Amino acid sequence: MGKIDEIRDRIDKIDEKLLELFNRRADLAIKIGKEKSKRNESNHFHVPHREREIFERMKRLNTGPLPAHSIESIFREIFSATLALEKPLRIAYLGPETTFSHQAAIKAFGHSSVFEPASSIESIFSMVERGHVDYGIVPIENSTEGVVNLTLDCFVDSNLHISDEVLLGINLYLLSKTGNLDDIKEMYSHPQPFAQCRSWLNRHAGGIEQIPTSSTAVAAEMASKHKHAAAIAGKLAAEFYDLKIIAEKIEDRAQNTTRFLVIGKEPAKKAKRNKTSVMFSIQDEAGSLLKILQVFGRNEINLTKIQSRPLRNRSWEYLFFVDFEGHIDDPGIDKVIRTVSKRCMYFRVLGSYPWNG
Ligand SMILES: C=C(O[C@@H]1C=C(C(=O)O)C=C[C@H]1O)C(=O)O
Question: Quick count: other Cβ atoms within 10 Å of Cβ 291?
Fold first, then answer.
């Protein structure tokens, strides 16, 4: 037997053990599920903080060579498959299939979940509110293009909690049926990806008409139907729509990342490092925002983001969205929130959730 065959034989033996262990683990999780239903806790079949504890313990114990992020994705798939034995988690995302939102949803919940494409960010919120799905995943900001205002606006009319965040590295591909730039007369994509590769497009495809679509998946579908059309989309779309790659990684910034939020009905329990998002409006008078920010500053709370949006019913008045380090169950944070909320006309905690950055 050659060296490779001998090593493959050893791998086969390990795989047999893994298979047995995966199933023994699943049996135990089923037992926990039965205990939960005896105690009428079936609505808590998914326990994100327990999953997080397992991730953190496994990463601590890990001696490599597998990196921490690979350990996390392997365990994510184990949790997803285990939950699906009882009832798969249902997740709404901005569809259709193969969008970056779809990829973020898979990253957050694993392949054994059921993914429900929604036609708009508003409908993701309403699908969660109506209990049609367990969670929704919504884009909130991109490192090149900034904030997704539509998502901020949806929080105004909703009581849902942010329970997690997901960071997804975005690589953009120019795709077409032939894979040849000379064939292309028009290009399709969502306005965000067009903006994320503006300089590349100016340099290499300046004369080609750019046509906006509601998603990168719709753009890929257009490109799959017409020889002279190209799409800017992700690799998943290339595979799904059987398109050839004209150019890869055409985003202007190498670290192009989109941050997504997980929204649900339950607040998240405290993790090792947490972030809190709040939304508030204040009196239209000199120094009122400064006074609020000083409360955070005096209490040494690190702000990670501040964003304003016009109030829809009053011109030139604003709603502020602030993210900061810490969890509302931390004693210091709780005190700051009470002080700040007294000084605001309107104040709401959107959620405290694990900091994944
Ligand atoms: C088994 C449980 O239920 C689910 C499955 C988990 C797992 O596979 O380890 C962890 C948390 C829950 O989402 C549990 O609550 O411990």
Answer: 14
Backbone φ and ψ of 253, nearest 5°: -115, 130
One pLDDT digit (tens) per residue for the chain, 357 residues: 799 999 999 999 999 999 999 999 999 999 999 999 899 877 788 999 999 999 999 999 999 999 999 999 999 999 999 999 999 999 999 999 999 999 999 999 999 999 999 999 999 999 999 999 999 999 999 887 788 989 999 999 899 999 999 999 999 999 999 999 999 999 999 998 999 999 999 999 999 999 999 889 999 999 999 999 999 999 889 999 999 999 999 999 888 899 999 999 999 999 989 999 999 998 888 888 999 999 999 999 999 999 998 887 777 778 999 999 999 999 889 999 999 999 999 999 999 999 986
- DSSP 8-state code for residue 87: -
CA–CA distance, 85 with 65 (Å, rounded to integer): 31
Fold of 274-354: Alpha-Beta Plaits (3.30.70)
Q: Ligand 1 pocket: which residues have CB below 6 Å?
A: 29, 32, 46-47, 50-51, 54, 79, 82-83
Output the residue whose Cα is nearest ligand 1's atom 8. Answer: 79
State the distance from the centre of ligand 1 to the C-alpha of 107, rounded, in angstroms: 18
Q: How many whole angstroms from 119 Cα to the centroid of ligand 1?
A: 31
What CATH superfamily is the domain 90-170+257-264? Periplasmic binding protein-like II (3.40.190.10)
Same fold: 90-170+257-264 with 274-354:
no
- 3-86: CATH homologous superfamily? Chorismate mutase (1.20.59.10)
Q: Among 1.20.120.1730, 3.30.200.20, 2.40.10.120, 3.40.190.10, what is the CATH number of 173-247? A: 3.40.190.10
Nearest-atom number in ligand 1 for the CA of 78 is 8
- List for the chain the helix, strand, coil content (%; round to 5): 45, 25, 30
Residue 62, SS3 per DSSP: coil
Distance 28 CA to ligand 1 centre (A): 9
137 alpha-carbon distance from chain centroid: 6
Residue 25 alpha carbon, nearest atom of ligand 1: 8
Ligand 1 atom nearest to CA at 26: 8
List the residue whose alpha carbon is closest to atom 4 of ligand 1.
46
Nearest CA to ligand 1 atom 11: 47
pTM, 2 dp: 0.91
